[in-house]
Amino acid sequence: MTRPELQVGRVLRSSTRSFTIGCAVMQPDIPAFGSFVRANGPTDNSLIYGLIYDVSTQDDLFVRQFITADTPDEVVLDQRRNRQVPIEVSILTVGCGDGETIRQCLPPQPPVTLDWLYVCSNEEIERFTARTDFFRLVLEARDAPTDELLAACLRIAAAVRPEHAQRPFLIEAGRELARLLAADPMRLEGLLLRLRSW
Fold first, then answer.
1. Number of structural domains the chain divides into
2. Which pLDDT belongs to residue 79?
3. What is the sign, positive or negative, of the torsion defined by CA atoms of 130, 136, 142, 148?
4. Residue 95: strand pairing partners
5. What is the chain's alpha carbon radius of gyration, rounded to the nearest angstrom?
6. Which residue, among 146, 141, 145, 158, has the nearest Cα to 196 in the 3D structure?
7. Given 1, 34, 146, 195, which is the most exposed site by the fewest CB atoms within 10 A?
8. How far apart are the first and last CA of the chain?
9. Which pLDDT score is estimated for 87?
């Protein structure tokens, strides 16, 4: 039996390089920093793949009032469950596809507002990370904490593989990083240390 797809939230705003979704509340099974996700593209059968690089909880008028008041726990819990302002999850775009093929490049068009964002399955993650072309997209991103993001997504990608394949995957990823960051040994060392600590 296949599990139903986990919907994270709906697209609030988007560009070719990144997009932001809104969701009501962060449940334990909602993905976090470094998670692989996908959204439908604007055309039939088009998919856009991304990595979560930021989760932001904005305040609202109710929260501001509760901060200074002696608020009962049940009111706080109700406010968390029934937020008036969505939690915003920012995604860096790292690929696109048509359901058959996956390309690790920026899509021709971003996702459309109010479309759903889904968690990638383990199989999708393994398939997506069989290539390393997306490393450059992450390393060159302007608004994301790129080194932390790349290390986090590689740890996730290793964890979905069989145990005997995890270490070889990380070694191969380290080799590709060494090639891409040959001119920046300090940055390379920091990234490899993050991977090694996993």
1. 1
2. 62
3. positive
4. 49
5. 18
6. 158
7. 1
8. 32
9. 84
Per-chain mean pLDDT for the chain: 87
Output the DSSP codes for 125-169.
Answer: HHHHTTS-THHHHHHT-SSS-HHHHHHHHHHHHHHTS-HHHHHHH
Q: Domain range for residue 173? A: 7-196
Q: Please, what's the b/e burial string for 32-42 (b: 16 or more CB within 10 A of its CB; e: otherwise)?
A: ebbbbbbbbbe
Tell me the per-residue pLDDT of 116-130, one tens digit each, with 9 for 90 and over: 999 999 999 999 999
- Distance between CA 186 and CA 120 in Å, rounded? 32
Alpha-carbon dihedral sign for residues 183, 187, 190, 191: negative
Q: Is 23 a domain residue?
A: yes
- Does residue 80 lie within any of the structural domains? yes
pLDDT tens, 76-95? 666 666 656 678 899 999 99
Q: What is the pTM of this model?
A: 0.86
Q: Is 31 helix (H, G, I), strand (E, B) or coil?
A: coil
Q: Tell me whether residue 150 is in a domain.
A: yes
Q: What pLDDT shows up at residue 147?
A: 96
- Which residues of the chain are under the pLDDT cut of 50? 1-3
Is residue 20 within 8 A of residue 11, CB to CB? The reply is: yes
Looking at residue 113, its amino acid is T
